[in-house]
Write a structure and sequence with these properties.
about 210 residues, alpha/beta, Rossmann fold, 2 domains, 8 helices, elongated
Length: about 210
């Protein structure tokens, strides 16, 4: 049976004051030896707050996982790895997608076990539920805004159509008119339609407006 490739991660927010990243690493290495893991890297961030999702050593470890070099990530405790539920959920969901197991020594969470796999599934479901709820809230807000007559999406460009109507009345094509006015042909066509000027000229007549150049 092939040895499992493990990445060990440890972190302290301050150096000194009784905090020692070495203690975390020693305990993790002892477990790795007991379980016969091949430790491919020991990643330690010192003097960096756990509230930061981006940390030099953590980023290097995640990159190794994405390259397929890691089978298992082991941490001393959850709060050494992530200080927010959002960060933890995001990372564990990515681990699941990469086929990387996750173990937290002090919480006794190991996703290589049946119970741990079940927890992984629950965490993934919670993350998906959070995304669905957020999506529904955004859509509900858009629907309310539309019902109130508010424009949703990119800000609409205001345009004085009188120069465009004059150029079209002279026999200019839509493409030529748009180029002269410095707007896209689609934008000009849309604005003309919105204000009931398409395909009418400035005098209310129906010119043979050409789209071609």
């Amino acid at each position: 049976m092939q040895q499992r490739r493990a990445a060990l991660y440890a972190r302290v927010s301050t150096t000194g004051h009784g905090q020692d990243v070495g203690l975390q690493v020693e305990e993790l290495e002892r477990v790795a030896e007991q379980r016969g893991w091949e430790v491919i890297g020991v990643y330690t961030d010192k003097g960096i707050s756990g509230s930061k999702d981006t940390r030099p050593e953590l980023d290097d470890m995640m990159a190794a996982c994405r390259r397929g070099q890691v089978d298992l990530v082991a941490v001393w405790r959850f709060d050494r790895f992530a200080r927010s539920t959002r960060h933890l959920l995001t990372a564990m969901e990515e681990f699941r997608g990469l086929g990387v197991d996750f173990m937290s020594l002090h919480e006794q969470v190991d996703t290589s076990t049946p119970m741990g796999k079940a927890m992984f599934t629950i965490i993934g479901a919670v993350a998906e539920l959070e995304r669905d709820i957020l999506r529904e809230r955004v859509q509900a807000g858009v629907d309310r805004a539309k019902a109130a007559g508010k424009h949703c999406g990119r800000p609409r460009m205001e345009m004085d159509l009188r120069p465009a109507l004059a150029l079209l009345a002279q026999g200019r094509t839509l493409k030529e008119t748009a180029r002269i006015l410095g707007v896209s042909r689609n934008t000009l066509r849309r604005r003309l339609r919105e204000q009931d000027h398409w395909p009418l000229d400035a005098g209310g007549q129906k010119p043979a407006v050409s789209e071609a150049s």
